[in-house]
């Protein structure tokens, strides 16, 4: 607990120091952020004021330029349209600049400028309509509504004032330059108004009225006040030299231009008409314009440059303060890590190790020191102490365990012997029973194998007999097929003889009666052959059915074969009768050639029937061939059965041999079991004796 308290105290002290440094550097960093933001705002305000000033200047100068163009140019429309486009661009830039600044009523300022601008642009057609007239007919009074753009200028001046006031409040140097710009524009504005005030008088030569004189004096006084204000602002030490030099040049130009204007005013009312051409009057009035505007532009550029310098300085300061804050934070974190790792953690690990030793936990080693310091030396010493205690504890435990082991060994051996004796007897008895059962099984296997061999031999003999029967049927069927082929050949030969009889019938006519009688006998023979053909077809069908069952018995096939042979003999006898009758017909036709012509048609019919008989005989031959093929397939199947039965017989003999080997192995196992029983009894006796 003391170590933890010291570690907590060190951590707390370090945290307080780090907090002080971080708060200090954090405040400086926040101040730098504020400075950077303010300098950026100053730069934005200066740029926005410059944009608004450019818009005011462009719109104001547009009035004088447009008026001069109307008076002096024959076709001023292109110039007026270009002026309008330029003014629109300045207006859009002004609205965009106002949207980027943060001033009170910013949206209201933009809306007011937009409203007045729409009113002013709606009057621009008056100027364009006047420009389309001939120059002698133009009247500037008709454009006075367009000339009166006070609303636009007032809103632009309000926006410029809001920007400059914001800049003067938050950024003195930038505000000073903005104020120089305001005074310069005041001088430029009033100076231009006095020129516009006197333009009509200079063009006509009429003297100025009292009101004009008063207003002219006011304009001169306001110009002088603006110049005095600029002089006062630039009188401080460190004023921008470029702005100061530009102001001297502008003031000298204004003084010189005022002298020329006073000279022109003095000539008014002399009755000589126009005192000065309009273009020359415009040039005289505008002579100091650029120098005055240059003062304002340089002041705004100096304000923007000052804002940029302030922004760069603020950024540098922000980077430095941020780096200081990050360094302080890193040092604080590093210190905390060092305290935790080099002090608190080692102390905590030592306390844990001491607690384990107090609980007599000598197995867990003390963690090795991460650093070779005082805590590391303490850890090494504590580890040596742990090893010594662990060695002593281990030796005591080994001695006690050895004594207990010797006492328990005798009881364990006795118990083991009794258990082993019981188990061995049980196993040996079971082995004897199993050997007897295996002996009976082997004997049964040998008996079954013998019977299987005998049955296989009987089946093999029957299969061989069936094969011989099938082969005999195949031979008979083949002879039947050959007989059918011979019958077909003889029928075809008879048909050829009939055709020859037709030829001979044309040579004789004397033996018509004998030929008719022979023809009748030929018809009888033909009918007999037809009957034989029908029976042969039926027998062929029966033979096919019996052939399908030949694999089972094959006995019916022999009967069918005998019947086929008998029918074949009848067919041969009928064929002999046909041949004899044909011979008689041939002998008769040799003596009755002339008479046969009358019955040529009849003999032609006989020829057709003989052709049909030949076709039927051919079909019988095809059927006989099919029977022969099927019988041959049946013979092949019975041969395969015979081979298979032979294999079964061989396997049965091998099974018998294996049964004999198993029986012999069983006898050996039984003998070994008897020997094992004796060995176990002798072993247990020696163990108990020891």
From TrEMBL:
Key words, A-Z: Membrane, Transducer, Transmembrane, Transmembrane helix
Signal peptide: none
Chain ranges passing through the membrane: 318-339
Span of domain Methyl-accepting transducer: 409-670
Entries under InterPro entries matching the protein: HAMP_dom, MCPsignal_dom
PROSITE patterns: CHEMOTAXIS_TRANSDUC_2, HAMP
Domain HAMP span(s) in chain numbering: 341-394
Family: Belongs to the methyl-accepting chemotaxis (MCP) protein family.
Name of this chain's protein: Methyl-accepting chemotaxis protein
Source species taxonomy: Bacteria, Pseudomonadati, Pseudomonadota, Alphaproteobacteria, Hyphomicrobiales
């Amino acid at each position: 607990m003391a170590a933890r308290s010291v570690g907590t105290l060190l951590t707390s002290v370090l945290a307080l120091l780090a907090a002080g440094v971080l708060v200090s550097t954090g405040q400086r960093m926040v101040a730098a952020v504020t400075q950077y933001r303010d300098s950026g705002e100053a730069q934005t305000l200066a740029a926005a004021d410059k944009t608004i000033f450019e818009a005011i200047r462009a719109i104001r100068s547009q009035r004088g330029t447009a008026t001069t163009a109307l008076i002096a140019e024959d076709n001023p429309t292109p110039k007026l349209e270009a002026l309008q486009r330029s003014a629109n661009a300045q207006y859009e830039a002004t609205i965009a600049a106002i949207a980027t600044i943060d001033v009170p009523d910013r949206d209201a300022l933009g809306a007011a400028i937009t409203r007045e601008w729409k009113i002013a642009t709606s009057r621009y057609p008056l100027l364009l309509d006047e420009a389309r007239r001939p120059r002698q007919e133009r009247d500037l009074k008709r454009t006075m509504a367009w000339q009166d753009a006070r609303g636009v200028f007032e809103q632009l001046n309000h926006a410029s004032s809001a920007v400059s006031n914001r800049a003067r409040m938050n950024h003195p140097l930038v505000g000073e330059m903005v104020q120089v710009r305001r005074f310069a524009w005041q001088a430029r504005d009033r100076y231009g108004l006095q020129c516009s005030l006197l333009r009509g008088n200079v063009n006509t030569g009429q003297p100025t009225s009292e009101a004009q004189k008063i207003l002219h004096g006011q304009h001169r006084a306001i110009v002088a006040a603006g110049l005095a204000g600029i002089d006062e602002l630039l009188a401080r030490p460190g004023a921008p030299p470029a702005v100061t030099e530009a102001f001297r040049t502008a003031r000298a130009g204004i003084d010189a231009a005022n002298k020329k204007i006073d000279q022109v005013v003095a000539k008014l009312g002399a009755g000589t008409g126009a005192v000065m051409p309009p273009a020359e009057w415009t040039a005289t009035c505008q002579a100091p314009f650029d120098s005055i505007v240059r003062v304002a532009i340089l002041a705004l550029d100096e304000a923007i440059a000052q804002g940029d310098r302030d922004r760069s300085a603020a950024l540098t300061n922000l980077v430095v303060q941020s780096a200081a804050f990050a360094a302080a934070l890193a040092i604080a974190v590093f210190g905390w890590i060092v305290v935790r790792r080099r002090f608190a953690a080692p102390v905590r690990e030592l306390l844990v190790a001491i607690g384990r030793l107090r609980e007599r936990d000598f197995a867990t080693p003390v963690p090795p020191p991460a650093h070779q310091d005082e805590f590391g030396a303490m850890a090494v010493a504590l580890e040596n102490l742990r090893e010594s205690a662990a060695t002593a504890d281990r030796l005591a435990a080994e001695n006690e365990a050895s004594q207990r082991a010797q006492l328990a060994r005798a009881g364990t051996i006795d118990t083991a012997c009794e258990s082993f004796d019981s188990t061995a007897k049980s196993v040996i008895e079971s082995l004897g029973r199993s050997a007897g059962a295996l002996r009976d099984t082997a004997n049964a296997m040998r008996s079954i194998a013998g019977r299987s061999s005998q049955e296989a031999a009987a089946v093999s003999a029957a299969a061989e007999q069936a094969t011989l029967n099938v082969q005999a049927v195949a031979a008979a069927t083949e002879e039947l097929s050959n007989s059918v082929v011979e019958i077909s050949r003889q029928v075809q030969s008879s048909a050829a003889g009939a055709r020859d009889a037709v030829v001979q019938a044309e040579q004789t006519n004397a033996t018509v009666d004998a030929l008719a009688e022979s023809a009748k006998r030929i018809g009888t023979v033909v009918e007999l052959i037809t009957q034989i053909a029908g029976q042969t077809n039926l027998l062929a069908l029966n033979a096919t059915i019996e052939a399908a069952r030949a694999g089972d018995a094959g006995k019916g096939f022999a009967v069918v074969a005998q019947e086929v042979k008998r029918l074949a003999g009848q067919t041969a006898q009928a064929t002999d009768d046909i041949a004899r009758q044909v011979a008689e017909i041939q002998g008769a036709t040799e003596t009755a050639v002339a008479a046969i012509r009358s019955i040529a048609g009849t003999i032609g019919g006989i020829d057709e029937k003989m052709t049909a008989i030949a076709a039927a005989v051919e079909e019988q031959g095809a059927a006989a061939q099919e029977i022969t093929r099927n019988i041959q397939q049946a013979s092949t199947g019975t041969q395969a059965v015979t081979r298979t039965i032979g294999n079964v017989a061989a396997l049965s003999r091998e099974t018998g041999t294996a049964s004999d080997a198993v029986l012999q192995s069983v006898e050996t196992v039984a003998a070994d079991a008897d020997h094992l029983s004796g060995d176990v009894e002798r072993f247990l006796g020696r163990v108990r004796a020891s």
